[in-house]
Predict the structure of Large ribosomal subunit protein uL22c.
Amino acid sequence: MIKKKNKKRYTEVSALGKYIPMSTHKARRVIDQIRGRSYEETLMILELMPYRACYPILKLISSAAANGIHNMNFDETSLIISKAEVNEGPTAKKFKPRAKGQSYPIKRSTCHITIVLRDISLNEKYEEYIRKPWALLEKSNETEIRKRN
């Protein structure tokens, strides 16, 4: 018996930014606003937000999109941000001299940001997402809750 190989088409691309000199709380404030949105909508949101964390996140999203367009032949209009997370990186510690021979610790925090883009044109539920973009996210949240329990 001859078995056919399943040609599985990958629908996700990612970009990872490590050791970004920024607090995780400040980066999460921006990441929470863009999670689940389309690529084009995300670019507009990040350009208009007044936070310093927007620039490195914008570069990461552009890098992930370029990976998908160049390596996987994805269409820019059908990309959504399926996963975006911020993890804590190492903290650089140094001391600043203060009055009367004392010292004060300075903690310089870093973070690791992961962005995963999904091409929804390859998904069977593409038409459903176009009509109701929130429905796809609600279903994925339900499956995550079921997996946890």
Remarks:
- The CA atoms of residues 23 and 109 lie 6 Å apart.
